[in-house]
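ARCHIVE CARD
CATEGORY: sequence design from structure
SOURCE FIELD: tokenized fold
FIELD CONTENT:
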């Protein structure tokens, strides 16, 4: 048994010849991860075991308790708990930046986005169990920064943001590509971190697209097989020709 998955004996059914077989499958683990802040319980998240510090930092950032990793005095993991000590109590204005509009400051190419999505297939735990989501933080010039996995898509986003904060990555020069559906919660977290492009191999919702539009984010779904659906702010993709689109 590992922290992320175990082998489990199963009964497998084959419809073609209506037969059964006794087999083994690799099954993911999930557990409650408790985040304690300044000695008090703050949140309990259902998550997989890896990157627990990163998830705690990303979650506290998303909730407005910190604005950067420098706000953290110490962080340690003990069992299924992440214990965080802050340097100061957050003030009432800490979430003022949450509605900040992300202005267009750079462009990337469609090829970089397609190539980035290919890296999602390298996610070990997803390939091993089929139960994990993956998130890749990619710089606008195509430099791959890191790939993170978790059983929950919102945890993936928070783990990515947390690691970026801990490594002092300029998220305003990056895009985040994920394997799960694009929902309002994910758009909100990415927008708060200042990530201009959020893309996925899967679908979005109308509400997530509306939120991305209002925050100045480029939201992209169904990035697969040489095509993509760009729901908002396509001007960040170099191949987009607004003049040509208007003439059609």
């Amino acid at each position: 048994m590992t922290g992320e998955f175990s082998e489990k004996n199963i009964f497998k059914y084959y419809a073609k010849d209506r037969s059964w077989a006794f087999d083994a499958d690799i099954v993911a683990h999930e557990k409650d991860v408790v985040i304690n802040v300044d000695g008090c319980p703050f949140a309990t998240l259902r998550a997989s075991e890896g990157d627990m510090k990163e998830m705690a930092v990303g979650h506290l950032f998303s909730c407005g308790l910190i604005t950067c990793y420098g706000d953290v005095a110490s962080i340690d993991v003990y069992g299924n708990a992440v214990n965080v000590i802050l340097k100061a109590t957050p003030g009432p204005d800490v979430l003022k930046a949450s509605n900040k509009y992300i202005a267009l400051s750079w462009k990337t190419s469609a090829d970089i986005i397609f190539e980035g999505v290919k890296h999602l297939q390298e996610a070990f735990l997803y390939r091993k169990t089929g139960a994990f989501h993956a998130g890749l933080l990619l710089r606008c010039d195509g430099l791959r920064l890191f790939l993170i996995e978790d059983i929950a898509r919102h945890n993936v986003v928070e783990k990515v943001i947390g690691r970026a904060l801990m490594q002092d990555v300029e998220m305003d020069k990056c895009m985040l590509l994920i394997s799960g559906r694009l929902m309002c919660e994910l758009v909100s977290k990415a927008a708060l971190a200042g990530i201009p492009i959020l893309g996925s191999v899967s679908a979005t919702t109308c509400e997530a697209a509306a939120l991305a539009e209002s925050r100045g984010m480029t939201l992209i779904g169904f990035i697969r097989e040489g095509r993509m659906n760009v729901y908002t702010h396509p001007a960040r993709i170099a191949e987009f020709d607004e003049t040509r689109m208007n003439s059609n």
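CARD ANNOTATION: The helical segments are 52-63, 110-120, 124-129, 153-166, 184-192, 206-215, 242-247. The first helix runs from residue 52 to 63.
SHELF: design records, drawer C
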